[in-house]
Design goal:
This protein has 124 residues and is mostly beta strands. Helices cover 0% and strands 49% of the residues.
Length: 124
C-alpha cells in the first residue's frame, strides 16, 4: 500500500512555471510505476506523464512534451512534475497515481492508488 499527497499547485500566468510534488508514504515507493493525470472542469481525467519505478523510462502525453518533465527521488519517496511554459489549457486538478506494473499504463483504471489532487490554474 502507498498513500499519496500532492502539493505545489497554484495560480500562475501563461508562460510561467510550476513544480508539483507527490509525497508517498509506505516502504515500497521505489517499486511502483508512477503517473500524473489531470482533470479540467467538464472533462474526463487524462494521462499526462508516467515514469517507471527506476526512473529510466517515461511516457508523455503529446500535449505536454517538451514543456513538462517528470522525475522521482526514491530515497525521498517523492514524485515531481516540472511544468514550464504553462498554457491556459493546462488548467486542471492534477493527480499523482501509483501502480505496481511494467510497462507504464496510460489508462487511469490501471492505477491502484491515487492522491487527492492539487489545483493548477493558468491565467492569461
Amino acid at each position: 500500500q502507498v498513500q499519496l499527497v500532492e502539493s505545489g499547485g497554484g495560480k500562475v500566468q501563461a508562460g510561467d512555471s510550476l513544480r508539483l510534488a507527490c509525497e508517498a508514504t509506505g516502504r515500497t515507493f521505489g517499486t511502483y510505476t508512477m503517473g500524473w493525470f489531470r482533470q479540467a472542469p467538464g472533462k474526463e481525467r487524462e494521462f499526462v506523464v508516467g515514469i517507471s519505478w527506476v526512473g529510466g523510462s517515461t511516457v508523455y502525453a503529446d500535449s505536454v512534451k517538451g514543456r513538462f518533465t517528470i522525475s522521482r527521488d526514491n530515497a525521498k519517496s517523492t514524485l515531481y512534475l516540472q511544468m514550464n511554459s504553462l498554457e491556459q489549457e493546462d488548467t486542471a486538478m492534477y493527480y499523482c497515481a501509483a501502480v505496481f506494473s511494467v510497462p507504464i499504463p496510460q489508462r487511469e483504471e490501471k492505477y491502484d492508488f491515487w492522491g487527492q489532487g492539487t489545483q493548477v490554474t493558468v491565467v492569461s
